[in-house]
Amino acid sequence: MDIKVEVLEGNRAKITVTVEESIVTARVKKQYKDFANRYNFPGFRKGKAPRPVIDSMLGKEAAVGTVTDELVNEFCPQAIDEAGVYPVGQPDFGEGTLELVKDKQDYTFSFEIGTKPMLELSGYDPVEIEMPHEGATDDQVEDEIDALLEHYYEIVDAPANTKVKDENYVEMKIVATDDNGEDIASITNDEMQYGIGSGLFPKVFDDELIGLKKGDTKQFTMDIPSESTVMTSPLMGKTSAINFDIEVLSVKKKKLPELTDEWVQERIGVESVDELRKELVEEIESQQSNMFPRLKEARALGTLTDRLQGEVPEELIEESESTLLQDFFQQLQRQGLTLDAYLKQADISSQQFRDDVKQQATDMTKQDLALDAYAAHAGIEATEEEIREEFVKAGAEDPDALMQQWRENGQMYLIRQGVIRQKAVKELVDSAIVTEEAPEEPAKTGKHAKVADEDEEKAEEIEEVSE
Description:
alpha+beta; five-stranded antiparallel beta sheet
């Protein structure tokens, strides 16, 4: 096979393929032999009918037409691969029909194909990125301890004069009636404990409780919200509003356990608070060791992609979108889910889903083109051994046979492209200039939060005495 490549405008190429005479002759001979064995021709034994008889019965173009189709289907993908182009879309053979092969002659055919554009970057110097501090900080350890203590909280009475705030619990007597004055049994309760912000009732209900204290009563009416909550959902369509008569029996708050050696021994199973801190440090650093390489790569790629210049072909985005959707639906199938069930679970509309996939496909395509530009500028290539290693890593029983199959199918460019991009990512990340992120503003966590809570409790006790 001999090929010629002509670069056209608009990211297209014209590829001309010439199949040598010996291949054409062998294929034509084989095709006539196949016809002779496949069909019954009067007066001739199976496989013995001569070409003129076959042409007379099946048509003069039957054999050469079949050979033409076979040669084009076989050599077109191989020609694309040997031409070294990265195809976009399907080959275009023009509006007319392909010329048929002629026995004992070379066969030449041409087609056009869209090609991946080679865009440029605004700069090829090492990317500059910021990364979080490596190693566990005191604040991170305190946050982990806070989360741990939060898991073991208990609800206790707040000082008697405590006013209800967002973080409180309210023990209350509640009487609820509908818009006809009938009792709502599902809500009415002589002693109900309710956490502000729990979502059992709408926020407007919580707002009515804010500022109340033990012994206070309050009457108010709340419209049934369009977005249902646990307590209002059963009432939708049955009443337009709920009338409440509330009596606050007590105000409660969460109390976290005291962090002591005895407590961690009993609850966590470690010898001391110091030992707990050491384990948390190790856990945080282990998480960082798994997360930081991926984070560094993502930030380096994001910075590189921002440098991409030029128009991204819509065909490439559509290919990425098709791949994403195919992978997504295969995953849904494995999980036994339908698209409707997924959308409901994710609480998004079908249009939002399509928009998200489109955006993800666009981002992926831009990232790939940025890597291609970086690799081309750096002269990064894929060797045959590196390509073969990909088939070995895939677990192929016969990597060389599978490579040949991919080559004959014209798919080797996919492996080559993947290897080049992997090498480009490694070089990009290894050469990145990394600075440490500025620390965030300190939050009220750990010991500081505990002190603040104690100060607030003392203030409430003083307020109670003064009243």
